[in-house]
Amino acid sequence: MSRIAALIAREWRAQVYSPVAWIVWTLFLFLAGWMFIGVVHQFIEIVANYSAYAQYMSNPDLLDRINLNDLVISGLFGNLLVLFIFLIPALTMRGFAEERRQGTDELLLTAPVSPGQIVAGKFLGLLAVSGMLVVGAAFFVGVLLHFGDPEKGPIATGLIGLALTAAALTALGFAISTLTDSQVVAAVGAFVLFLLLFVVSWPAESTSGLVHDALLALSLPAHYDGFAKGNVRSTDVAYFLSLAAGGLFAARATIASQRWR
Amino acid sequence: MIEVVSLDKRYGDIAALSQVSFRVERGSIVGFLGPNGAGKTTTLRILSTYLTPDAGAAMVAGFDVSSSPMEVRRRLGYLPEHPPLDLDATVREYLGFCASLRGVPRAKRTAAVSGVIERCGLSSVAHRRNGNLSKGYRQRVGLAQALVHDPEVVILDEPTVGLDPQQILEIRTLVRGLAGGKTVLLSSHILPEVAKTCARAIIIHRGRIAADVPIDPSAAAGSLEEVFLRATSGEAGVEARQEAIS
Questions:
Q1: pLDDT in tens, B147-203
Q2: Taking an 8 Å Cβ-Cβ cutoff, which residues of chain A contact chain B?
Q3: Which of A190, B69, B71, B153 is at 20 to 30 A from B221, Cα to Cα?
């Protein structure tokens, strides 16, 4: 256990000593802030239009049809998913690729730690770094809570969905970084995989039956969107946990196979 | 302490090692000599459990590297060909990590790290980042990493490569200081290096053991050179086996 703790601390240190984590965090806050301002402005405009319309129709009930949750929070969480797809590969690209390039894989693989412990330590260290993005997202939601009165349930589930996504993408990105000794290859590979999970369901509308179901079952947004609406389904949770477990299992297998080349 | 029996290792079509066998007794310092590409690193990587052999067996500290790698790793200090340093960590941080990775109990960790920093002459750079160190210091940090957990067996892959004469002398003194307490196997292609540090030299050539000779400390390094050249030039290799330097 103390060995895993040592690996977690080392991974965290390696990430925050390198500029990459800071660049990613900063970019995330900037871009998420930009998107946040966008959706809030859109909301203000819609409210203004609706109040004018309600006045004209003398029907104040019309204003009840719009709310913060549907227009701002749901939209914001949808945008954050896209940011994750772009930014998490930059956090996971060091992963194991840099160990190989630096030769430190030889240190890890000749120390009394199992491949499973190496994967656990490095993954949890990376998750702490990508988890900071979820903390950043919580900040913007906090602004809404301070100035508005949104429903709190969907906010909580939205953040859970975001955290599950961070875990799944971090595990997959790390798995890709175990396959190469180049950080660039690891980043591009992870980005392509994430993008594929994002777009895989696009042809689903024109298909039917098993193909349709399979495409939707693989789709990242299809499993993610419910969370921001407060709609948590066990299949969605299982989807993200399976992606994370699959990534970690694959990473463990590649690291363990290193000895047998 | 180290026992290697009929080790074979192939990389695709190339036989890196064939029928490599040797022993290293407890408490002795043995040099592993050979031209570049002879199979030194491959052998040491197998002993360190980084690679597995295709055939044959290797025992380190009484445990088989294939069937109980964890037991071997607990007892082993290993300096790979390239010192495996975390370039962004400071020397002290890095050695602290290595100590906990190797299972040094928390209570003893600070003392172990400070001790090894002292022994390896790293006190003046302990707070600096590995990445900002000169090659000589990096090599010493690599050596410190292999010693921080006080292992029974120490395997060093070319510990003095690329160092200046002064640094070579320092490393040599350090390694010689390990004699008696620890079993040391160090590889090199620099003959005087082995002649001055080790009690015995095992010469490997094209993946085979070409000679296994005790080194007479009173003899000049030239005689080891003779054995080395004979062992690594063509067929004479096998005959040179067991031939003592006089």
A1: 999 999 999 999 888 788 888 888 888 888 888 789 999 998 878 888 888 889 999
A2: 2-3, 5-7, 9-10, 13-14, 17-18, 102-114, 258-261
A3: B153
Question: Rg (Cα) of chain B, in Å, rounded?
Answer: 18
The nearest CA of chain B is from the CA of A128 a distance in Å of 18
Strands B14-24 and B63-64: unpaired
Give the number of beta-carbon pairs within 8 Å between A and B.
Answer: 80
Mean per-residue pLDDT of chain A: 92
Residue window 144-163, chain B: list those with CB within 8 Å of chain A: 145
Contacting residues for B221 by C-beta, under 8 A, at least 6 apart? B191, B192, B195, B196
Render the burial of A71-100: b for 16+ CB within 10 Å, e for the rest: bbbbbbbbbbbebbbebbbbbbbbbbbbbb
* Distance (Å) from the alpha carbon of B239 to chain A's nearest alpha carbon: 33
Percentage of chain A exceeding pLDDT 70: 100
d(CA B103, CA A117): 13
Handedness of CA A27, A33, A38, A39 (dihedral sign): positive
Distances (CA, A) of B109 to A125, A129, B89, B105, B143: 22, 27, 17, 6, 17
Q: How far is CA B230 from CA B211, B224, B227, in A?
A: 9, 10, 5
- pTM, two decimals, is 0.90
Structure tokens at B89: 């960590």
**The pLDDT of residue A128 is above 90:** yes
pLDDT tens for B13-43 read 888 898 999 999 998 999 999 888 889 999 9
CB contact under 8 A, B84 and A2: no
A88-A93-A96-A97 Cα dihedral, nearest 10 degrees: 170
Using a CB-CB distance cutoff of 8 angstroms, which residues of chain A are in contact with residue B88?
Answer: 13-14, 17-18
Nearest-CA distance B221 → chain A (Å) = 33
For every residue of A206-260, which 3-state class applies, written as one string? HCCHHHHHHHHHHCHHHHHHHHHCCCCCHHHHHHHHHHHHHHHHHHHHHHHHHHH
Digit-coded pLDDT (tens) for A33-81: 999 999 989 888 988 888 888 888 887 777 777 777 777 888 889 999 9
Distance CA B151, CA B153 (A): 6
Check if the beta carbon of residue A197 is closer than 8 Å to that of residue A220: yes
pLDDT of residue B222: 64
Contact B40, B210 (CB under 8 A): no
